[in-house]
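thought: fold this chain, then report.
action: predict
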Amino acid sequence: MEFVAIVTALALLQYTWFSFHVGMMRQKHGVAAPAIHGPAEFERALRVQQNTLEQLVVFLPSIWMYAHFANPLWAAGVGAVFVAARFVYRASYLRDPASRGLGFTSGFLATVYLLAGGVVAAGIDAYARLA
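observation:
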């Protein structure tokens, strides 16, 4: 489970960096909080941070559920794919939002794998306890 904890920490540090980047873009472009509109460079950074938060809501419980009920090493490996995919998403989105597909899809599929696998493994465990 240590590797799952490390990947979890990496995902949270990544999100923290993305949030810090939004703050830097606010300062650079003079966009005072709580404004969410400004130059495209600022808005793209904000959307990367917001979308990453939206993805973390599903990713974090999924990685831990998969690790607990299925396999912690696989959970960590697939979780690392999620973290890498978020970097690809960020680079693509900041350059051209229309090019974000690979990063978004890769991270989304990693999360779906963890969630579905965790639910199936939990169901198998629950069924075995009832039998």
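thought: worth noting. The chain has a mean pLDDT of 97.
final: tokens above.
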